[in-house]
Backbone:
């Protein structure tokens, strides 16, 4: 769960950096990269952890 918050937080930082660079072409790419990390961090928080079948037996 901690990793998800780290990915989310880094996504926020990168998105803000991209937002301030938007007049430049690089700004749009950096903003999209940050937004993708925010989305992936949030989606990963709702994902169920995969359980190993060997551990159950």
Residues:
């Amino acid at each position: 769960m901690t990793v998800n918050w780290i990915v989310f937080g880094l996504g926020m930082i990168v998105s803000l950096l991209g937002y301030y660079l938007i007049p430049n072409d690089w700004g749009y790419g950096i903003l999209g990269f940050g937004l993708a990390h925010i989305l992936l961090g949030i989606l990963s928080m709702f994902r169920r952890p995969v359980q190993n079948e060997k551990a159950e037996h």
